[in-house]
Design brief:
5-stranded antiparallel β-sheet; 2 helices; alpha+beta
Amino acid sequence: MEKEEISYDVKSFIDIMELEELVKLSAYVYKRIKFLGETMILEKIQGFEILDKVSFIDNTGNILKGTVVRLNKRTVTVKSDDGKEWLASPFLLNRLM
């Protein structure tokens, strides 16, 4: 998504709102952002299957290879070739052919 300004109409609408309305709007916007983030994670996780071969970079910058062993709500469990299990963000995994 490109960096854009909020439309004039939205800004004008917000400018006339009272504090109580702004608090409710803020809560709604937070819930919407959370929902969209969870949807993105779910879509990305659904792109993997158990036993897929993947690679990822660990916290120290090492490239690890392993096998998907579980698809969790927000992460993917990968068993690396050295036998360790990792919880990884699906956005950090690369499927190997």
